[in-house]
Amino acid sequence: MNIQIKPELEEIIPAQIATGRYTNPEDVISKALKLLLESNMGRSYENIRVDLRGIPLDGYVILDRVINGGIEIVRVVSGYRNLESLFTESIDD
Asked: How does DSSP classify residue 50?
């Protein structure tokens, strides 16, 4: 399976590998997906968008939404960012 990742998301992968917690890109993606699937939790960010959820991971927030029985990762951002200011534009960009 080949997956295309937006450049801003792709930049996070080598940064996570550099921490020493992960050895390759597959480890980083696998960890993120396991967190999303195991929990179906995610904090609700309905104040930003009704279907938006987020899960903290190693200083980042993985923002996702449920679509067609699956999960779409919308953005991965630093946990220190003001999330509301990021979504003044459409998240479908």
From this structure: T
DSSP 58-85: TTEEEEEEEETTEEEEEEEEETTS-HHH
**Chain segment 12-52, per-residue pLDDT in tens:** 899 999 999 899 998 988 888 877 666 566 788 888 888 88
User: CB 30: neighbour CB atoms within 10 A?
Assistant: 12
DSSP string of 18-43, one letter each residue: HTTS-SSHHHHHHHHHHHHHHH---E
Count CB-CB contacts under 10 A for residue 43. 12
**Which DSSP state fits 14?**
H
CA distance 77 to 63: 8
